[in-house]
Amino acid sequence: MNDGATAVPALDVAGVSKAYDTASGRRIALSETSVRIEAGEFVSVVGPSGCGKSTLLMMMAGLLAPSEGEIRLDGRPIDGPPPGLAVVFQDYSRSLFPWMSVRRNLALAAASDKLPKEEVARRVQHCLTAVGLPDAADLRPYQMSGGMQQRVAIARALMVQPQVMLMDEPFAAVDAQTRADLEDLVVRLGQEFGATIVFVTHDIDEAVYVADRVLVLAAGPGRLAADIPVDLGSRRDQVETKLDPEFARLRSEVFQLVMRPRAIVDVPVSASA
């Protein structure tokens, strides 16, 4: 709480820009972006290639420093990877250590907390059960399918009991059926663990399906074009939800914003921001 009455947002992005100096001049990856993400929200970020989606996520994670502006986590400036925050990357094959068992991959995530062995073991089993892999602790990553490996990567993020989980196109490398299963998994985990989730994706259907809000970024330079609330209820279903006329309307709105970003002029931010 900031004053005893008003909740501090989980993430507060205030006037953030990111620029790089290149041989051909200064390139602006993201320009003057501001957004508030409240504790417990599931927010997806979508937009064309080069609009700064991953750049924004990496600044939220403290892995990149803004050129201008500031990002705060529960009121504290992020100037490096903060405690209580976890990142799930797209390439699970590089984020897991192939020579380690699943158990050791997960235990390593909690090493900095210096927890008793019994607590680490309890968390490992709890997190694997949460992602639907209760019997996978002794497997090596190369003995698992891509979808199973990404479930392990998500379980590893849960090991630190994150306040915020950032996900950078986490399902881009899996097949369509596995992707649908994983979408349902993260929706359930967001509700079960109460974490704030920021989910970057190129898939417009996915962006609408999983989220409470969709942030649409436009390119040239990257900037926030729209902040769209999603009112599809807390229970999502791959068939029923996607047959809902409201899903179709939201998908169409986001699609038009992504495909015609140059037609956007001062789209207002939603009242929830």
How does this structure look, described?
This protein is of the alpha/beta class and 273 residues long. The protein folds into 2 domains: 1-84 and 162-273, P-loop containing nucleotide triphosphate hydrolases (Rossmann fold); 95-161, no CATH class. The protein contains 9 helices and 10 strands. It has helices at residues 53-60, 92-95, 102-109, 117-130, 146-158, 176-193, 204-210, 240-243, 245-259; strands at residues 11-22, 25-37, 42-46, 68-73, 76-77, 85-88, 164-168, 196-200, 213-218, 223-229. The strands form 2 sheets. A 6-stranded mixed sheet has the order 6-7-8-3-9-10, with helices on both faces. The chain has a 4-stranded antiparallel sheet with strand order 2-1-4-5, with helices on one face. Helix 6 (176-193) links the parallel strand 7 (164-168) and strand 8. Helix 3 packs parallel to helix 5, helix 4 (117-130) packs across helix 5 (146-158) and helix 7 (204-210) packs across helix 9. The chain is globular and about 50 Å long. It starts with 10 loop residues before the first strand and ends in a 14-residue tail after the last helix. The model is unreliable at 1-5 and 262-273 (pLDDT under 50).
